[in-house]
Amino acid sequence: MGQRGGIGLGRLFGVDIRLDFTLIIVFFLVATNLGEGTLPEWHPDWSPGLVWAVAIGAAVLFFASVVLHELAHALVAKAQGIPVKSITLFMLGGVAQIERDPATPRGEFAMAIVGPLTSIAIGVLCMALGGAGLRMSADSFAQHPSEALREVGPLATLLLWLGPLNLVLGVFNLIPGFPLDGGRVFRSILWAITGDKARASTWAGLTGRLFGGLLLALGVLMAFGSVFPIVGGGLAQGIWFMLIGWYLGGAAQASVEQVTVHDALKDVVVRTLMLTRFDTVDRRVSVEHFVREHVMGSDQRCFPVTSDGRFVGLLSLSDVRAARGEWGSTEVGALMTPAERIGTVLPEASAADALDDLARRDVDQLAVVDAGGELVGLLRRRDILQWLSLHPPARGSDRPRSGPLVGAVPHSR
What we know:
alpha+beta; CBS-domain
């Protein structure tokens, strides 16, 4: 899932918080469900203005609690030295964009379990604070919640709605289906037992696909009129279950493929895959000359730029298109990406680490430089894909054969 779109909300503990546009739909549905159904039923004496103020406030606080859930993951990841790019709220919850998985089962367990525990803690706290204003016991409240809620004010009502929702969120995420937090906990345990992360990922991914398929099937049955204990039924509920099931199944498969590809590349060095025969261009030539003499008749899409034989940057065709109309008066050096801003990799580096770097930087190639800083090659995303197509991951009883997924897999719910 891309993380570039949406609206930036700010930074917390060095992590960008973003809002995906799909969240607007869910925010509207949550607020409308509260404002037109739940709150008028609980408080028929409230004015429409108060009802909608509480409904909107509840929706805002719910998504704030999702941010706290994801932020807990991010902080544990940062404590382990793992970079965290952002947290994005979207239609089905939140995603912490964590650049790589923890290096040990213990680290994975800690990072995974903290999210559900945070949601459960928020739920318990909200229930305790909201329940302080109730005039009946907890057992009576559980049996007659509507009657009890009519006696409390707006703040207590909001907390008593938000608390159970966070408890459900925390418990749901403990289900051992990858990539839910419970699936990551399950993987960490299997990883610790077997010592094989790829095998553990395969089995955790299988549980994720099975759980996603179960939700999808339940959603279809609900949409056609079936009603189930606890989860209920109806068309809207069924569509929601189908969306969650479809997302979880796809995310589980993508996560397994990512680990499988990484495992296939971990013993391959960049020197094996890098492009060594490529055209370079001097930074002082015009863009018009560059296009005529270098681009036309070539399938190369990215060109190293030199100055007196020294590597100073990279120029892509997209850079050239940005200056269309001024090619004759613009030098290549004015459009290139300077060398200090370009990702570089050593020839002896692992191709798996290079793939992670490509995904992290969201670029299609890295400059390969030796220990002395001399450019010796280019590593392109398509070269990695071609190698994988010729050397597919081994197919065994405990490891699927699947196509490569190039890109970081987010920690998601």
